[in-house]
Each structure stands twice: as structure tokens, then as C-alpha cells.
Amino acid sequence: MTTPATYLRVPFAEKDAAKQLGAKWDPGERAWYVPENLDVAPFARWRDDGGAPVDDIPAPAQRVVAENGTVQALTLSAYLGKAQAVVRKYLGGRVWVAAEIAEGVLRGEHLYLTLAETDASGRVRAQARAVAFSVLQRGWYREFVETVGQPPAAGMKVLVEVSAELTSRYGFQLQLHAIDPSYTLGEFARKMAQIRRQLEVEGVLRHQDRMPAPVDFTQVVVISPPVAAGLGDFRRDATQLEELGLTRFTYVASAFQGVDTEAQLLAALARVEGLHADSPFDACIILRGGGSQLDLDWLNSLPVARAITHASLPVFTAIGHERDRVALDDVSHSSFDTPSKAIAHIRSTVRDRAVAAARDLLRIEKAVAARIERAQSRVDREWQRTRVGARNWVAFALGRLTKHYVRVSESGRGRLQRASEATQKLFIRSGQKATNHFSALAAAVAALHRSSVHAANLAQQRTATSVQTLVRAISATATRRIDWAGHAVSRAFESTTVPAARRHDELTRGIERAFDATLAAATRRTNALQRGVERTWHVVDRADPERILGRGFVLVQQDGHTLTHALAASGDVLLRWADGTRAAHIHPVIGAPASDGILGNTR
Question: Distances in Å between the alpha carbon of 452 and those of 444, 447, 449, 546?
Fold first, then answer.
């Protein structure tokens, strides 16, 4: 009787005996087997079924009791041996089976898996154990680990080549002969593609791409596992930027693998949004530092990817190496292979901004100096023009005042002279008139005396009295006329002098008001120019090189000149900090890329 190749369990001490009978060694399976077309009967002792043919399996029968009272029945090993023969006959060949690994353990060199099939609700529909011995020496196992990034483990969907085996000692199990790594990777890729298609349907896949890239990094928030090798590499350079006062980093911890990954990442992104609303960040960086494909598959989450597309700030990813790509990389603003490359991008951006700031500072210094010089010249011109204008206005006003004063004085003196002369003429005319009247009265009295001698004696006393009364009346009238003339002259003099004085006072006040207005306008103009100069100087003071050096920048000088390019730095230089200077010597670096910078390589 001949059968297909049958594998044996040959102890090491009996291998020579099995070899002499014709058994062959399978290095891949690490086991002895009976070649095809070779009788397996001589190898019965090394077969678990004891060599019983399939046809020897008894049909169902009733319970039989011997004469001595014992029950006639098959032993368990004999029964399982016959069952094994059936399994080998009908399921002994190798087949490819798709399943999910429920459990996976590598003990020493042997791989033990529990394969399962679940329905849409997650309930187990089928389950079986699978084993592969000495897998560390199998080519298919090494290929799988190198391709997927880790040994077969729980959660993986795999395509395995197996053969069925039933032994009396270990029961039913599957022998593993190979695992296809491309099938497992295909499941990861299918999941990523499904996430990408869903976000495209929602119209949010490219939201991050439309955000402007940060021009500087002053505040950055980092989401990472609490302990990760990539985080340590990132923080080494980040700490230097923080110590220099250039960038402030905020760290938010989250799980990146395991059943809590999705919930914790969503919570971390929500916290970042809250912090960003209070104090805006330039960017958010999600970093891990690589890992196996199975570990990274926890990051292929549709809710997390959707949350990144709706973020209000640019989100960078630095999950791992170039081959370790996940769905988060597809929706982020920028994706870096490693955390080290992410911090290198931040460092180079900050450095470029510092170089640009130094160049801008020089331009500002020159522009401010020119503006100050122009402003000073303008102030001087305006001041000179104001002084000359004020002097001209004062001279003009004084000239007009002097002329008007002379004219008023001369007019007053003329009117006073004319009034005095008129008064004298009136006084003389009144005196002459009184004298003539008195003479006529005296002549009338004498005529009356001559014509009336008799009456003269009688009327002498009365006439004398009348004459005296008349003289007193005439004298009083003359006196009144003289006083009236004097008052008239005084009033005429006052009417001439008072308007002249009033006009003099008004003119003086007008000149003073004009002078005050001119002086006030000049003062306002000068104050405005002074405020402009102060504002300009404030800008210059904020751009003071000492302030910039105080932030941690270094100024490189050589032979009294400031170096602004790295290629220009060689030989002995002077490094200037805010608190002092140090001498240094710069060696040229062969093959170094040319880039702008403040410092070269120093020793």
C-alpha cells in the first residue's frame, strides 16, 4: 500500500533507523517524511495513527461485553489515530486560507497562532490553532517580518498556507507553511484608501493644503506618546530653541496604539484647539517615531483624520520612516519622515527669519537715519523761516504803530493849538466888548450929568450903585464866558487825546495778538516735528542691535565689518553677544551647502 508523502515524528536517537527504511528529511518543515509511492507500513511506530488504514475504521456498533465482563472497545489513541488518517487523506494537502490572528505568540523558535473568522458584528464564526516549528530559520517568516515590520500578531489579517493535522496528544491543529505579507499590507492600504475616499466625498481632504505655511515658529504644540524615541530626538533641538527664547513648545500626551488611541487623539486635538483659541500656535506637530505596520495601523482612523482636516491651524505629521505612512499623513499640511526632520524644518525656518531680521535691521537703521536727517533739516528750515517771519511781522507792526502814533500826536497838538488860539481870541473880543460897553455907558452918564446937573446930584448915588451893579454883572458875564471857553478848550483837548490813546492801545493789543498767534503757530509746528522725531526714534530704539543681541542672537564681525553670509566667514572673527565679545576662528567646511547665516563653524 502506497500513500502520498507522510510526515513522521522521529526521535533524534532513531533518525538513522528511519533513514535506513527510506525516510527523507524536509529542512523546511524540520521533519522526517515518507516519500510518495513508498510503503508506510514499516514507519508505523513513528506515525501517530499507528499505521491503521482508513478502511479499518469500524462502523457504528452496539456495546459488546466479553465473557470475563470486560467491555470490548477502541482505545482513545487508536480512535484518534484512525481520525488522523482520515484528516491526512482528505485534508493533508496544503491550502491558502484567509483569516484574522486572534492570538499570536513566539516561544523560542516556534510560532503559535490562533486563527479566527468573525462576522460583521464581530462574533467568532470559526477558530483554529496553527503552529510552525523553527520559524526563525524559515525564509517565508523572515520575509514577512522584514516586509510588515514585525512578527505575526493579534489583529492582523493574514493569508496563510496551512495543512490540517490531528494527533492523539494535541488534537486538531493547522501546520503553517507560509504567510503572504502582501495580503496583510494590502489590508492596511485598503483601509487608508477607504479613509481617503470618504474625506474626498465630504470635501475636506485638502483643507490643510489650503492653509498658508507658517512664516515663523514662535509657538508650537506637539502631540506625541508620553515616552517615544522620536520625542527625545525632537526635544533635544527644541530645548535649544526654547533656551534661546526663539520658540516656545507645548506638549500634549496621547496614546498612539491600542484600543484607546482614537479617543485620546481626538481629546488631544480638542485640547489643542482650546489652547490655540487662547494663545495662537504657529503649527501643531503629531509625532511618534516609527514602529511596526500593525502598531501604526491604529493611526488609520477616520474620525482622527477628519478632526485634522477641520483643525484651525496647520498640522504637521512626523510618524516614522518614509515607508511608515498612515492616513494622518494624507490629510496633514506637511508630512515629515521622522521627528528629527520636523524639528530641522522648524530650526531652519527660525534661522532664515533671524537672517532676514538682521538684514531688515540694517535697512531700518539706514532708513531711520535718513529720515531723522531729513526731519532735522526740515525742522531747521521751518524754525528759521518762522523766526524770520516773526521778526518781519513785529517790525512791520512796530512801524505802523509808530507812524500812527506820530500822526495822532501831531493831530492832537494841532487841535489843541487851534483851541487855545480861539480861546485867546474870544477872551480878547469879550474884553474889548466889555470895555466898549463901559465906555459908552460912561459917556451916557456924563451926557446925562451935563444935561441934568440938577438931577445928577440927586441920582449920583443911584447911578453909582447902578454902575457898580452893572460892572459886577459884566465882570461875572465875562468870567463865565472865559470859564466856558476854558472848558471848551479842555473838552476839545480831551476829545482829541482820548481817541488817540485808545487807538494806540488797540493797535498795541492787535500787534501783541498777532505776535502771540505767530509764536503759537511756530510752537505747534515745532512740537509736531518733535513728536515725529520721537516716534521715529522709538522705532530705531526698538530695532536697536543691543535688543536683538539680548534675545540670543550673535553678531559676527571681522576687521570692523559685520558678516551677513556664512560663505564670507573665515579666519579670525569676533563674536559679539549682549554681555560681551569672544574671539573665534572659523574653518571652511568642504562640501557644505551655501546658505545665508550669522554664524559659521566656530572652534
Answer: 12, 8, 5, 132
Distance CA 58, CA 82 (A): 10
* More reliable by pLDDT, 192 or 467: 192
- Res. 468: pLDDT tops 60: yes
User: What distance in Å separates the CA atoms of residue 595 and residue 603, rounded to the nearest whole number?
Assistant: 19
Report how far residue 242's alpha carbon sits from residue 576's, in angstroms, rounded to the nearest whole number: 21
106, amino acid identity? L
Task: Enter the C-alpha cell of residue 358.
Answer: 538682521
> Residues for the chain: how many in total?
603
Residues 528 and 572 in one domain: no
The dihedral built from the CA positions of residue 13, 18, 21 and 23, taken in this order, carries a sign that is negative
My answer on whether 324 and 252 are in the same domain is yes
Residues 194 and 317 in one domain: yes
What count of other Cβ atoms lies within 10 Å of the Cβ of residue 541?
11
**Residue 224 corresponds to which amino acid?**
S
Pairing of strands 124-132, 171-179: parallel
**H or E element at residue 477:** helix 453-542
**Does pLDDT of 132 surpass 80?**
yes
Please report the sign of the dihedral spanned by the C-alpha atoms of residue 362, residue 363, residue 366, residue 368.
negative
Domain that holds residue 487: 375-542
Strands 31-34 and 6-8: antiparallel
Residues 278 and 209 in one domain: yes
Judgement on whether residues 399 and 481 belong to the same structural domain of the protein: yes
| Spacing of C-alpha 277 from chain mean position | 12
Contact 549, 410 (CB under 8 A): no
The domain that contains 296 carries what CATH number?
3.40.50
For residue 71, being part of any structural domain is answered with yes
Domain assignment of residue 547, yes or no: no
344, part of any domain: no
Distance CA 31, CA 138 (A): 13
Q: How many domains does the chain have?
A: 4
Is 465 found in the same domain as 411?
A: yes
Same domain, 164 and 197: no
Pair 275, 212 in one domain: yes
For residue 559, give the 3-state DSSP assignment.
Answer: coil
Last residue of a domain, one of 542, 567, 590: 542
Closest CA to 32 of 45, 109, 176, 161: 45
- How far CA 601 is from CA of 532, 554, 586, in Å, comes to 43, 13, 6
pLDDT for 602 beyond 50: no
Q: Is residue 66 part of a domain?
A: yes
From 542, 562, 582, the end of a domain falls on 542
Contact 448, 540 (CB under 8 A): no
**Amino acid (one-letter) located at 47:** R
For 149-162, write each residue's pLDDT tens digit: 778 888 788 899 98
Q: Looking at residue 106, what DSSP letter applies?
A: E
Measuring CA to CA, which residue among 218, 221, 327 is closest to residue 271? 221
Q: What is the pLDDT of residue 3?
A: 45
